[in-house]
Design a protein that fits this description.
The strands form 2 sheets. The protein has a 5-stranded mixed β-sheet, with no helix packed on it. It has a two-stranded antiparallel sheet with strand order 2-5. It has a single domain, classed as Immunoglobulin-like (Sandwich), CATH 2.60.40.1930. By secondary structure, the chain is mainly beta. The chain starts with 6 loop residues before the first strand and ends with a strand. A hairpin with a 2-residue loop joins strand 3 and strand 4. The protein is elongated.
Length: 89
């Protein structure tokens, strides 16, 4: 996963955009948000449409420190990105 930046401010809204390419009609995708290696939030389960489609999830950043977003496909971590949340200036 790639990001435009690795630093965001507290309270900022982050948009996670990702592509799922599957033919499995029963596939399930979850986004997990970690703060300092502790699970902070989990998205609603996404059942992707067969084929290759882009999806987006909106996240509001409510904690300071190092975060990680993980994309799980059928319970298996497939991709992740790490970033930092700091006080606004």
């Amino acid at each position: 996963m790639l990001g435009e930046t690795d630093t965001f401010t507290l309270g900022q809204t982050l948009y996670v955009v990702f592509t799922v390419d599957t033919q499995d009609m029963d596939a399930q995708v979850l986004l997990k948000l970690y703060l300092l290696d502790l699970l902070e939030d989990v998205s609603a389960t996404l059942t992707p449409t067969p084929g290759a489609f882009a999806y987006s999830v909106q996240i509001t950043l409510n904690g300071l420190g190092v975060h990680k977003i993980e994309v799980d496909y059928d319970g298996t971590p497939e991709a992740s990105i790490t970033f930092n949340v700091v006080e606004g200036v």
